Write the structure tokens for this entry.
Amino acid sequence: MLTLPPPSEMERAYRQSNSSYDGVFYLGVRTTGIFCRPSCGARKPMPKNVVYFATPREALFAGYRPCRRCRPMTAVGQPPAWVEKLIDEVDRNPQRRLTDTDIRSLGVDPTRARRFFRKNHGITFQAYCRSRRLGRALEQIRRGERLDDVALGHGYDSHSGFRDAFSRTFGKPPGKARSTDCISVAWIESPLGPLIAGASDKNLVLLEFTERRMLETQFATLRRHFKCPVIPGENSVLARLRHELTLYFKGELRKFTIPLDFPGSPFQERVWKELQKIPYGKTVSYEDLARKMGTPHAQRAVGHSNGLNRVAILIPCHRVINKNGLLGGYGGGLWRKQALLEMERGKRKYGQPEHPAR
Ligand SMILES: [Zn+2]
């Protein structure tokens, strides 16, 4: 996995339009849904509206579209004109499917287009188009629009057509699998930003702040662990989670009742179980945790497993801090770790989420 520089450094870089950071990270602007390279000359967004990505692919799958000015989809330097033309065509109407004939009519050889995208972006041109369509759709779902409306608005004839397209991108189609054999994923708004949650009909298997990793990687991990399709949807576990999270952020819930499933290596599973024993509002150090597990020398391994936790908040990895009292790291962003801890200590209050998800 690519790692990003610290946010303060990235903020400085894009404020200065520092081109030496081009290719190191990309920034998405929440208010416009556009993503840029750090050197972009467009007006600088407020830091609170910026989301960072390690690759254009991540930005695309999070629903952002490439900036027309700095053209982050092209490798550093000026893209060939024919690529610009193709990208423009997709941007003008992501709903439309470009056939090989359409591509040829733009004076571009489809094979060359595919080769270019694969080489420069690690995806096929068709996958790029699909990611643009689905990225937009995901963005709408995240804003709380109904799945049917989103599907129709994106040129899919039906809900099921949308699901199929989604499955082609994110996993094998549900096929004859029973609904209990798939993991439903949905967005959940929180005062600390949107979370993506995944659950089978019985257990919660994923809860992460979405900036942490790209959706696609998250879904691939779930598919690998659970050997079943991952599709957008709702179920009773997710409904219960929404309810409990709302109470949690209001400071009215200290213990979640939702069953979890978190397969990992035996050591990882031990760490994750140990994390669940840390009481609400309390913190322990990585060292304490290693000692409690009877492996005092495995601090680093404990820290690493802590970072791989897939179920944020409910498996409270945010309650593990450095021995010196400093916060240490947090996959969802250090500010969130701080906010969660302050909230649990009663130093910070949240009401209802600003945009309660349906
Ligand atoms: Zn830009």
The pocket of zinc ion is lined by residues 36, 40, 42, 67, 69-70 (CB under 6 Å). The longest strand covers residues 183-188. Strands lie at 26-29, 34-36, 50-53, 65-66, 183-188, 195-199, 204-209, 230-232, 284-285, 320-321. DSSP finds 14 helices and ten strands in the chain.
